[in-house]
């Protein structure tokens, strides 16, 4: 990768991925955004930025030509709970937008990373150590767009030779971006509330396990996969990757061990509960480990130490 366009650069993943790519590479790392979600601060000042509405294929093509882009990170999407309230928009962005990116990439010779999700799985999928290759019958529009995106990306690779790659992200926990409407975002919010108020009302029921990952590992996975020799890859769209799996009680106790005054009760969100219960408890990421050397650096304990240290500094606690 030399010249990279990040579509959705001001979102949960994009804001951190853009900065990480700029730290690693000397080329044009272009922060693509939509009006109303403009980059600010270091994200704006550290490199080029362009309006890149994923529904406007010509605009994307113009940016690719202007900056000689060789790699596109397509991060535009509505998160799971938001997508359920706006299913038509979720499809327009998730699938219509992906078609635009893939067509531009076919014409311009770009590699494409489009993140998938544990949302591709559903109630018919094995819950524990979910295999790489298994039944994908999601129960949400978010999941429908993600599994359809995997298939379309594989098609563009097989039919047109577009270098498409992706990972199935679990829930992502960030100390930079606040929660943004995802089912797993309770695991971000709980740290923020622990530091700010000392109490958290959890929207996910006790005993509901989901795979999670600390953002630094997620960024490394997205970059490492795009750097690996394609000859190593048997799979492309999309790799299971895993780091940790827990339910609300486990993450609560990890925080309480460090903040004994912290308290939690439950105020269940039926929509998020329904979505969470359709997703796996844990993923088998053997293929990612064997094909491109994936290995997480953080577990729950080391992530909790880092999250609380950073958030306490930010909120002067």
CATH homologous superfamily identity of the largest domain: NAD(P)-binding Rossmann-like Domain
| CATH level-1 class of the largest domain | Alpha Beta
Q: How far is the first residue's CA from the last residue's CA?
A: 40 Å
Based on the structure, what is the oligomeric state of the protein chains? single chain
Strand count = 14
Individual helix count? 12
Mean pLDDT: 95
| SSE series | EHEHEHEHHEEHEEEHEEHEEHEHHH
Taken as a percent bin, the fraction of beta residues is 5-15%
- What CATH architecture of the largest domain would you give? 3-Layer(aba) Sandwich
Basic shape: globular
Number of domains: 2
Please explain how this structure is put together.
The chain contains 12 helices and 14 strands. It has 317 residues and is an alpha/beta fold. The protein has 2 domains: 4-169 and 214-240, 3-Layer(aba) Sandwich (Rossmann fold); 171-212 and 244-282 and 298-314, Alpha-Beta Complex (UDP-galactose 4-epimerase, domain 1), CATH 3.90.25. Strands 3-2-1-4-5-7 form a 6-stranded parallel β-sheet, with helices on both faces. A 3-stranded parallel β-sheet has the order 6-8-12. The longest helix has 22 residues, at 87-108.
């Amino acid at each position: 990768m030399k010249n990279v366009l990040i579509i959705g650069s001001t979102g949960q993943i994009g804001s951190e991925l853009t900065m990480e790519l700029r730290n690693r590479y000397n080329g044009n790392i272009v922060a693509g955004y939509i009006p109303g979600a403009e980059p600010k601060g270091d994200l704006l000042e550290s490199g080029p930025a362009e309006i890149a509405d994923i529904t406007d294929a010509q605009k994307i093509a113009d940016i690719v030509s202007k900056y000689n882009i060789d790699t596109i990170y397509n991060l535009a999407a509505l998160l799971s709970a938001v997508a359920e309230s706006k299913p038509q928009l979720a499809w327009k962005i998730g699938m219509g937008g992906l078609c635009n990116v893939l067509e531009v990439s076919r014409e311009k010779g770009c590699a494409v990373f489009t993140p998938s999700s544990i949302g591709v799985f559903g109630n018919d999928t094995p819950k524990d150590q979910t295999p790489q290759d298994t039944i994908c019958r999601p129960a949400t529009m978010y999941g429908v767009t993600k599994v359809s995106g995997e298939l379309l990306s594989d098609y563009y690779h097989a039919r047109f030779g577009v270098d498409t790659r992706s990972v199935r992200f679990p829930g992502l926990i960030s100390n930079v971006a606040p929660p943004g409407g995802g089912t797993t975002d309770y695991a971000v919010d709980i740290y923020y509330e622990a530091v700010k108020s000392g109490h958290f009302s959890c929207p996910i029921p006790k005993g509901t396990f989901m795979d999670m990952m600390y953002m630094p590992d997620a960024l490394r996975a997205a970059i490492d996969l795009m750097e690996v020799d394609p000859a190593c890859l048997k799979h492309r769209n999309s790799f299971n990757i895993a780091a940790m799996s827990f339910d609300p009680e486990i993450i609560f106790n990890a925080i309480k061990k460090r903040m004994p005054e912290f308290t939690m009760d439950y105020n269940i969100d039926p929509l998020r509960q329904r979505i969470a219960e359709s997703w796996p408890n844990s993923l088998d990421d053997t293929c990612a480990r064997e094909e491109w050397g994936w290995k997480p650096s953080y577990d729950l304990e080391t992530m909790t130490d880092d999250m609380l240290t950073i958030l306490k500094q930010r909120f002067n606690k």
